[in-house]
Design brief:
The protein is mostly beta strands. It has no helices and 53 strands.
Length: 575
Amino acid sequence: MTYRDHVLAIACVLCFSAEAALAQWTSANGEFGGMVNTIAASGDTIYVGTSDDYVWSEVGMTGKTYRTTDNGSHWVDVSAGLSGGPVISLAVMGSIVITPCANGSSSAPDSGLYRSTDAGDHWNRVVSTGGDGIFHSLLVTGSTLYAASDSGVVRSLDSGASWIRTGSATKFSFLAGPENDLYAVTLVQGGIQNTGNLCHSIDSGATWSKVAPANSGISVLAVSDTTVFVGLKYLGVFRSTDNGATWGEVDTGLTRLPPTGNIFVTALTALGSDLYAGLHNGGVFCSTDNGMSWRSANSGFGNQRVVTLSVSGDNIFAGTYYGGVFRKSRNDTIWIPLKGVGLQKGNITTLVSSGTRLIAGGSGGFWSADSGTSWNVCNNGLLNGNILSAAALRDTQFVGTNYDLYDPSGLYRSTNQGASWDLIVPHDGIRSLVFIGSDLFAASEGSGVIRSSDRGVSWSVVSPSLQANALDTFSGKLFAATYSGIYRRAVDDTGWTKVCDYPSQSLATSETSIFAASYGGILQSSGFGDVWAAIVGLQCAGQISLQERRVLVSFTHRTMERHGRLLRRVCRQLT
């Protein structure tokens, strides 16, 4: 069971002394943007649709729609009137905005196509799901608007005010191409990643014919002039210049995922004669020779997970997995982050001080040099954005990620304050990290508790059978929090002593106390862990850690708001 299964919400900095009462909280500003699924622009107005796979409503994932008119300095939430589910597609025609909403399923009473005629300030449902099922994507081509759904394609000739069905009732996931030369990808097994055939229409969607490649997991589709490009899940990019009759692989230069060597392209789009590809882990790549070769186009962007790419005029936009929104013009070489006030915050699971910096991990890596007042993304080289743990020793920083079958997971190390990262313990989930002197201990999902005495160069297994959720040190002893209780051992001992039956997820220590957290609350021990007492007034705590005499508490959504924010509280020192 992974940590993300338990902590769905907010990392908070909670300070208390023996007699401290709860006091005022202040928000530490941070660019912990949600997962940006879709971007659409009209002139200087940019819209993004987001979702948060850590934050769930009663019927599914949550999502928001945001608008900016000042290049991302300020974002306005324009989601009022929508269903609250994940926003997966947006289409803009002047001040008219269209988006599909499916909060949980097509049977939800508020699912359907929504339309705004005032740039998102107000919304009206123009198509209910009914027999159409869930709508998955939108396409604007000329003055015509298309929507792909579980029951086929619908078309609008009046900017989304009314819709008519075209063609058969085939499930389609996404669309591309000009009006009289449309391509669509069929949807199987109910998920956009489980795609089947590529279909072609030369009569505005009235009839469709299947073209290769078939049943190969098409993850993305793009059309540039008369050339069709598809990204096959884990297989790379393929190109056809004869309407899909024949295909050739065109992915030389794209980053391959270790250890399989797969290529997972998540987005494709064309800006003029340049073709851009967004990778699941690897950032953005550009081809100037119709896909024959690719070069990295990550200057200012980093090695982030790309969710979507969108073109408006001479600008290309990139939406990332919890890294925010970026923009680059046709002639620029550097991406500009559209940072600003108002974007949905994401999940933060761990914090650690390293010199003058505070490093936060969760939905990616972030650092702050001003005690959390402002934040910067530090994901370069982090090929897995689900960070569970962090530790630092002088000029070396470590973060551990959740295990993922396809993402490069394990333990990452940085020697430049998080500017770049290297994977040093692959194919594992690292739930917790702690230094005892110069020895680094890690709670590994695959190997139990492991230890390194040379800053991660080599490792030895300490306790292969102990599945620890958290590790910490107190009074020269190593403590481990598990679902069966809390254990203690001397650093060089070979066995553990159980000191508490309380199922625990996290630990933190001060000079005089050790704290343990779980859903029932927080326990405190002022001795050597032999006697524990509950701290009254704190419930449903998921994770705690201590930085510079402050206890950092991560609460579940049962007690705090659903969208994660990094909170900072200034109060007295621990005694």
